[in-house]
Structure formats: structure tokens, C-alpha cells
Prior knowledge:
This protein is mainly alpha-helical. The protein contains four helices and no strands.
Amino acid sequence: MQSTGNVEKLKQEQDKNAKIYKKFMTAKETGNANVEKEAVEQLAENYKEMFKLDNARSILLDLASEYLQKQKLAEAMDSHFPFL
């Protein structure tokens, strides 16, 4: 994967992801499974758009697996999204 070089588009995608991860935090705090489901669906759609995929399931499962297995990745993601 390569960057398109479009900084503004990248910033918009990062902002979308931040909103989605905040939604995950809301779901975690409230235990609301519907909000959690919405966040997963939105994240999948955003990744499909970002990476030009028909289905983002594989990339999201890989990301989740890497997060659980690699402490440095988890720390980097957690520091980027401290509200989780």
C-alpha cells in the first residue's frame, strides 16, 4: 500500500477513524452492543474506502490479531487513541 500523497484526504480518513474509535469507547463504557456493532460496520466501510477493498474483513481481522499478539503495536495504537 502506498500513500496517494493527498494530505487533506489522509487527514479526513484519520478524523473518521478517530470518531469511530470514540464510538468504540462509548460502547465499551455503556456496554451497548448496538453502538459497538455500528462502530465495527463504520470501521469496515472506512477501511474499504481507504484501501480500495471490496471487503475489509480480512484486514480488520489481521489488525485485531496483530494488536493482540504484538505489544508494541498495541502500545502505539493505544497512544494514538488514548480514549480507548
